[in-house]
Amino acid sequence: MNDGLRGFLVLALLSVAVSALLAVVHDATTAQVAANRLKERWRVAEALTGLPTLHETASLPLPGTSIELPDHRRLIAAETRGYGGTISILLLVDPDGLRGLRVVQHHETPGVADFIALPDSPWMQQFEALPLIAAASLDTVSGATITTRALRDTVARLAVRDDLPRAESAP
Questions:
Q1: Radius of gyration of the chain (CA)
Q2: How many Å apart are CA 171 and CA 169, to the nearest integer?
Q3: How confident is the model at residue 161 (pLDDT cuts 50, 70, 90)?
Q4: What's the pTM value of the predicted model, to 2 decimals?
Q5: Is a pLDDT exceeding 70 seen at residue 56?
Q6: What would the pLDDT profile of 62-119 be if each residue is shown by its tens digit?
Q7: 12-26, 96-110, 133-147, 151-165, range with the lowest pLDDT
Q8: Strands (E), 82-139
Q9: Which pLDDT score, from 0 to 100, does residue 167 have?
Q10: How many Å apart are CA 22 and CA 19, to the nearest integer?
Q11: Alpha carbon distance 76, 50 (integer Å)
Q12: What mean pLDDT do residues 32-47 have?
């Protein structure tokens, strides 16, 4: 057997072995990764709502749905499409508007859109105590325009939902 063929066979066998090892590791860790993601969603939901035992009394809403909290606020799960893919968010709404928005998972460009995962970032703080109708007028961030536009537009679309708490209109 010549050296070229031998090298090819060694490389092919090595590739098969590494692929098999990766498949085994993937299968072995899939359940733990899913459990960790769920735990993180609960952590974010409880921090956003201020209800540390929320996981004992409610189910997390699925994207596109919401749950009513004991104090008549609503926790909404949503997904939107950013530059790097799907952005999963939780929003807290009461009759006066949006009380908070948290990004649960995203695949946006590291170093460019990292601020969306930081509730204390100035851009994300705009979503605290924001009337839903005002979301459409928020500015986007240069360099992360697609990402910030996706979040802003998702919040603005909430303004037309019928299932959200609303402030009482004056007679």
A1: 22
A2: 6
A3: confident
A4: 0.80
A5: yes
A6: 998 999 998 989 999 999 999 999 999 999 999 888 999 999 999 999 999 999 999 9
A7: 151-165
A8: 86-94, 97-105
A9: 58
A10: 5
A11: 15
A12: 93
**Residues 171, 38: Cα–Cα separation, whole Å:** 44
Q: Whole-angstrom Cα distance, residue 110 to residue 7?
A: 38
Q: How many C-beta atoms surround the C-beta of residue 11 within 10 A? A: 10
Do residues 119 and 126 touch, judged by C-beta distance below 8 A?
Answer: no
Any idea where the domains of the chain sit in the sequence? 1-171
Residue 139 gets the label, from left (phi > 0), alpha (psi -120 to 50) or beta, of beta
CA dihedral 117, 122, 125, 131 (to 10 degrees): -130
Tokens of 65: 């749905």
- Using CB atoms within 10 A of its CB, is residue 157 exposed (0-12), middle (13-18) or buried (19+)? middle
Q: Which of 157, 115, 167, 107 is nearest to 133 (CA)?
A: 157
* Residues contacting 156, CB < 8 A, separation 6+: 132, 133, 135, 136
Looking at residue 170, its pLDDT comes to: 39
Neighbours of 131 (CB within 10 A): 11
**CB-neighbour burial class of residue 88 (10 A; exposed 0-12, middle 13-18, buried 19+):** middle
DSSP 118: -
